[in-house]
Give the backbone structure.
Amino acid sequence: MAEVMKHEFLLGFIKIYILQYAQRESVYGKEIHEHLTETGYHLSYATLYNTLHGLENKGYLLHEERNVGGKIRKYYNITDKGRNALMISMNHAQMLFADLDYNKNTGSPSKTE
């Protein structure tokens, strides 16, 4: 149960991670999977590719097929819509985390004006 909750909560951050990664350079699924594994997050290939396809279906990513060593790989690039979504998502995430600045005496979230 705890693993399922962890997976659900982190999937939104994974989407932001993918968009941010694609903003820096073209990326393919296996490469993203390896980077996530290095950070300690184990995501199945099925979940990763479903996430990539979902981001592409929403217009946040576009793929191009490249022949690498005789194998066809899909490389994903961020779109203008994806850049905008990334900027908005990161701003909202920063605001939410800033709001979780707990008062040491009460343990309740701080009130922002």
The helical segments are 2-24, 29-38, 45-57, 80-99.
